[in-house]
């Protein structure tokens, strides 16, 4: 029995029930141990949640790294569109992404500041990777925009879509918002098809 199995079980329970709704008994039951045994690995529910959040961030960074490694031959617009599409699909398909997005936007009150700072670390990692991509091509698509402006706009669109996913999941409303914001973004940066 490892701490990793507990973290994975906790992540699932926290994703389904939130911090307050998840019980240590349910987490322990998922891995076949008694609730008290959790304390040999984690000091508290809060400690277990923080470990699950750190684990979740590491998985998302792994996804981001892998995505940009796989997509290195596409155009900037293809990479950005495909990243958005894959992330929306990832939210629907992986507990890890749902857990991370839910808790990045609505962290438990007792550890809110710490979780927000960790969320910013992930956002900064994504911004850095995107900035590298945009800096390589910005001179070909716009002489009016700075690479940082393109990246911040793209991140803002992602954030808006994440909020829509939190409230409505993968819906027609999300699809319309995604399509409209993407169209305005592409035209706004001056990309010619």
Give structural notes.
By secondary structure, this protein is mainly alpha-helical. Helices cover 78% and strands 0% of the residues. The protein contains eight helices and no strands. The longest helix is centred in the middle third of the chain and has 30 residues, at 112-141. The model has no long low-confidence stretch (mean pLDDT 91).
- Structural class assignment: mainly alpha
Number of strands: 0
How many alpha or pi helices? 8
Distance between the termini: 54 Å
Work out the radius of gyration: 19 Å
Low-confidence segments, given as residue ranges, are none
Assembly form of the protein: single chain
Determine the mean pLDDT.
91
Largest sheet: none
Strand content: under 5%
Helix share bin: over 70%
Q: Topology as H/E string?
A: HHHHHHHH
What sort of overall outline do the alpha carbons produce when their principal axes are compared?
elongated
């Amino acid at each position: 029995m490892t701490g990793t199995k507990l973290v994975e079980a906790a992540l699932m329970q926290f994703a389904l029930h939130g911090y307050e709704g998840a019980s240590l008994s349910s987490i322990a039951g998922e891995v076949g141990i008694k609730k008290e045994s959790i304390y040999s690995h984690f000091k508290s529910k809060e400690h277990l949640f923080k470990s699950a959040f750190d684990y979740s961030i590491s998985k998302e960074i792994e996804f981001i790294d892998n995505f940009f490694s796989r997509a290195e031959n596409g155009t900037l617009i293809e990479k950005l569109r495909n990243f958005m599409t894959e992330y929306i699909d990832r939210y629907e398909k992986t507990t890890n992404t749902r857990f991370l997005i839910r808790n990045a936007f609505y962290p438990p009150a007792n550890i809110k500041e710490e979780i927000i700072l960790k969320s910013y670390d992930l956002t900064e990692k994504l911004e850095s990777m995107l900035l590298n991509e945009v800096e390589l091509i910005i001179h070909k698509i716009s002489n009016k925009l700075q690479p940082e402006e393109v990246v911040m706009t793209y991140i803002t669109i992602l954030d808006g879509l994440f909020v829509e996913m939190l409230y409505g999941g993968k819906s027609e409303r999300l699809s319309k918002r995604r399509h409209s914001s993407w169209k305005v973004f592409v035209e706004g940066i001056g990309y010619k098809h």
